[in-house]
């Protein structure tokens, strides 16, 4: 059986924490920010932790070697 490859798009979008959780950037922060509320832009700083079920999908299918 061939080696499992990590999806290169997933490498750029997801990071794993030390305990195995999946961190991801908040969405809707790239452009058209003038129409977003200041509260939304402020609360979307930094990174977010995915739910356990979504994180398991990401780790199994997109980051198998991580």
From TrEMBL:
Residues 33-55 are annotated as: Disordered. It comes from the Bacteria. GO terms for biological process: translation. GO terms for molecular function: structural constituent of ribosome. Keywords: Ribonucleoprotein, Ribosomal protein. GO terms for cellular component: cytosolic large ribosomal subunit. InterPro entries: Ribosomal_bL35 (IPR001706), Ribosomal_bL35-like (IPR021137), Ribosomal_bL35_CS (IPR018265), Ribosomal_bL35_sf (IPR037229). Residues 33-44 have a biased composition (Basic residues). SUPFAM superfamilies: L35p-like. PROSITE patterns: RIBOSOMAL_L35 (PS00936). Belongs to the bacterial ribosomal protein bL35 family. NCBIfam families: rpmI_bact. This is Large ribosomal subunit protein bL35. The lineage of its organism: Bacteria, Pseudomonadati, Pseudomonadota, Alphaproteobacteria, Rhodospirillales.
């Amino acid at each position: 059986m061939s080696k499992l490859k990590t999806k290169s798009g997933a490498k750029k979008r997801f990071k794993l924490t030390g305990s195995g959780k999946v961190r991801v950037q908040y969405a809707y922060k790239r452009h058209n920010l003038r129409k977003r509320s200041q509260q939304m832009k402020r609360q979307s700083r930094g990174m977010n932790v995915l739910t356990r079920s979504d994180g398991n999908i990401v780790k199994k299918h997109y980051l198998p070697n991580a």
